[in-house]
Design goal:
It contains five helices and eight strands, in the order αβαββββαβαββα. By secondary structure, the protein is α/β, with parallel strands linked by helices.
């Protein structure tokens, strides 16, 4: 085991194990949030522009953040999204495009309805009463749910609250910047029920997935030494066996 070749292999294993140990330490450092957001921070109402920029993903500490913003409802864009639950009951959301700045919009879930007829009626009422009108909306910022394929018999149907899907049906979208998260209004207009959007649970300061990865890197580092040990031991046992055979032939 003290031959040059095996010493070289040992040094290579040390380098590999050192890299694995560094990666494990890197994962461990990120497993514990040493500066977590204060408890209840999402309940402090803040201006939308202070929390996230158009086109950016919503940082995890601000999922569910209460915000307020002013804007103007865009005509023709009060749309209905299905498969929405309020207190465990399935229904529909009525949504709208709120133009918060020149060529900048955010999708807003305005309220819940128990059936499609009520949702369509509320959307029509909003279209006739609120389109092109200024509004001030307070609500929670929620991350985009992602897109889904609509049924073949209704290509405009939506069962996920996705600003990307809504954008495909909105009007006046040339050079439009859109917020990636959507805003769930805390107060529904007439004809709709307030959306059930409780405060998010407090996040743990420990990321167990990162700790698991750190443990994996430690195992990999130990395995590098085990490989060297097994190769060197097998070679040593082979040489001992050859030596004993030669000794037996010469005796």
């Amino acid at each position: 085991m003290l031959r040059g070749r095996w010493i070289g292999v040992l040094l290579a294993c040390l380098v590999v194990a050192g890299v694995f140990a560094f990666l494990g330490q890197w994962q461990l450092e990120r497993a514990i949030d040493t500066d977590p957001p204060p408890a209840g921070v999402t309940e402090d109402e803040r201006p939308l522009a202070e929390v996230v920029e158009p086109g950016e993903y919503l940082p995890e500490p601000y999922v569910g953040q209460r915000v307020v913003t002013d804007g103007t409802w865009v005509a023709g864009d009060f749309l209905v999204v299905s498969s929405r639950f309020n207190d465990g009951t399935e229904g529909y959301w009525v949504t709208g495009q709120l133009r918060v700045d020149e060529q900048v919009s955010i999708a807003v879930a305005l309220g819940w309805a128990p059936d499609r007829e009520s949702a369509d009626a509320a959307a029509s009422a909003l279209e006739s009463q609120e389109a092109d009108q200024p509004a001030s909306i307070a609500g929670r910022l929620i991350s985009d749910e992602g897109t889904s394929l609509p049924p073949r018999d209704d290509i405009y149907a939506m069962d996920r609250m996705s600003p990307a899907m809504l954008l495909g049906q909105w009007n006046d979208t040339a050079e439009l910047s859109v917020y990636r998260p959507y805003l769930a209004s805390v107060e529904a207009p007439d004809g709709l029920v307030d959306i059930d959007s409780p405060a998010p649970t407090e996040l743990s300061t420990v990321n167990w997935l990162n700790i698991f990865y750190a443990a994996e890197w430690a195992v990999f580092a130990g395995f590098a030494f085990y490989i060297w040990y097994r190769l060197a031991k097998d070679r040593w046992e082979l040489e001992v066996e050859e030596f004993e055979e030669r000794a037996a032939r010469e005796s």
